[in-house]
Design goal:
Length: about 70
């Protein structure tokens, strides 16, 4: 089972088993002010980094459950 926990600018991708939780990736990104025009670009890059890490780390032939929490 894979767990993904998000908050603004921070994401943890964890592998969860019955007795152990391993952090596979920690992604951090600082965003400019919400009024800044670069805010949306920064947010999109952050989500793209998360997606790239999920594709790289998760073998979907083996993983049955993917939990995303925000």
């Amino acid at each position: 089972m894979i767990g993904i926990v998000l908050q603004e600018g921070l994401c943890h991708i964890c592998q969860i088993s019955q007795s152990l939780t391993l952090t596979k990736a920690k992604i951090m990104k600082q965003f400019p002010n919400k009024n800044n025009f670069k805010y949306e670009d920064s947010k999109n890059k952050f989500y793209h980094q998360i997606y790239d890490n999920i594709v790289r780390l998760v073998d979907f032939n083996l993983v049955k459950v993917l939990i995303i929490g925000r």
